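hey can u run this one w/ uridine-5'-diphosphate-xylopyranose bound, need the structure tokens asap thx
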Amino acid sequence: MLVDDHSSPSDQEKNTTTDQEEQPQQPLVIKKIACIGAGYVGGPTMSVIATKCHDIQVIIYDMNQQRIDAWNSAELPIFEPGLEEIVMERRGKNLHFTTDYQQVVDSDVIFLSVNTPTKYYGVGKGRAADLKYVESCARQLRDTIKSGRKIIVEKSTVPTRTSIAVKRILESGESKARFDILSNPEFLAEGTAISDLQNPDRVLIGGEDEESIRALSSVYERWVPKERVITTNLWSSELSKLVANCMLAQRISSMNAISALCEKTGADIQQVSFAVGKDTRIGSKFLQASVGFGGSCFQKDILNLVYLADHYNLPEVAKYFYGIIEINNFQRERFAKKVIHKLFNTVSGKKICVLGFAFKKDTSDTRETSSIFVCKSLLEERAKIHIYDPKVTKKQIMYDMKSIMNDCYDGDFSAKMESSRESELVESNIFVSTDPYEAMSDAHAILVLTEWDEFKQYDYKRVFEGMKKPAYLFDGRNILNRKDLETIGFDVYQIGKQESHMADW
Ligand code: UDX
Ligand code: ADP
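ok here u go:
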């Protein structure tokens, strides 16, 4: 229950029943926070709140028992630098992972941190966010919380005006409870989630009820300087999250588009990026050309914005932002085509080593990773693909590849995947190694698709000796030392750089 810091229990009771207008403006104190959804966002966010606020009980609830068991075990379900240490330190003290819904009901603040994937069916297919998980959370809250006062916080990225839907559902039943809805979008990036949470550029809280905004701000202000906690109305908060991700992705797509031009003209994308980024109005971050951006947010959020613009009959706006995705797809296809072309226009039966399957370094997450799309193109050409990633499991890689090959990457059609021709193709042509040298041995080409630091440390002389000749290396992240590799004897291709052998083959 939300309690007034300085009031007696009887006053507190009154606070929950009398009209809010008459309430004295005293700070509310949050004693228990719950989060629905123990994923990449909910897990790290709540763990950091627990380390920063020892007096608050933090509950992470998920309907997926296996996921909760993993959070309670020695092997956490997600890899994120620094996460394990803080979970081990606070778990069982003020950090609890559970499938017991009553813990949610008893909390003062309830974060919604469930998945909001792009719809793969019906109206808005391929663009709109599927809000079924958010909606089902709202219905469950409405049906289980009968009285008292709760702050409901939207943490998952949602399309603008989702909070109206949540509010309507919460207010539609018999419940006598008071629900205040806040939008508090997450800006953490995977791989750096813990430091992003501990030292955020800003915390954004959107809402209508001043008291609830103040209560949530006071939690963050335990470790975030007050001036970095920004408050806005609900719609601005929801929209800002989408716009922030679009702007970041737009920078990458701009550089990826220019990388194609660099390869034709002889300009060097890293030199261009450095020169451009030195302008303080532009800044140097997110100007790294790559094989294409991945992750659960960028594409989904751009599509959300595109859908919203279309919905409000603004096709020019929709088209403008959709271009970011088109360049991303172009970059992935361009990379795969380059590999096929360089390998004498055929990769059929050839061993190709893929280094990196996660969508970026320091995460085990593979959602929307460019590796899936590059591997698909090569598999369609019947390459034998040997994949090594330091953190992604074989099970995940095989599942992702079967989904994409069966055309059900966006949906859950596991049954279809069981015994299809495409799944057999994956089984007989995709191999997952736990040893990078084994994956590279006897290969025609190495493709670096994720920027893991360890890829820079390998003994490439040894690798070269064990490979088929000519030995190709396609660096989709521009992380390796090209001169050194060429001295060893590799044919090297990097994004946005002139090729060493300009003539065909
Ligand atoms: C992103 C936002 O950064 C974060 O604020 C938001 O909360 C969630 O979405 P995330 O997707 O976890 O975070 O990772 P991010 O670091 O943004 O990287 C996204 C993709 O862009 C990765 O595939 C990365 O490799 C790629 N990238 C990033 C580039 O290709 N070039 C760059 O310069 C930067
Ligand atoms: P994100 O990257 O946004 O954190 P994830 O897919 O990693 O997304 O995590 C979302 C979690 O939300 C999943 O573990 C899923 O089981 C959980 N979830 C979805 N809907 C509900 C619900 N109605 N109640 C409880 N948990 C839910």
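DSSP finds 20 helices and 16 strands in the chain. anyway lmk if its weird
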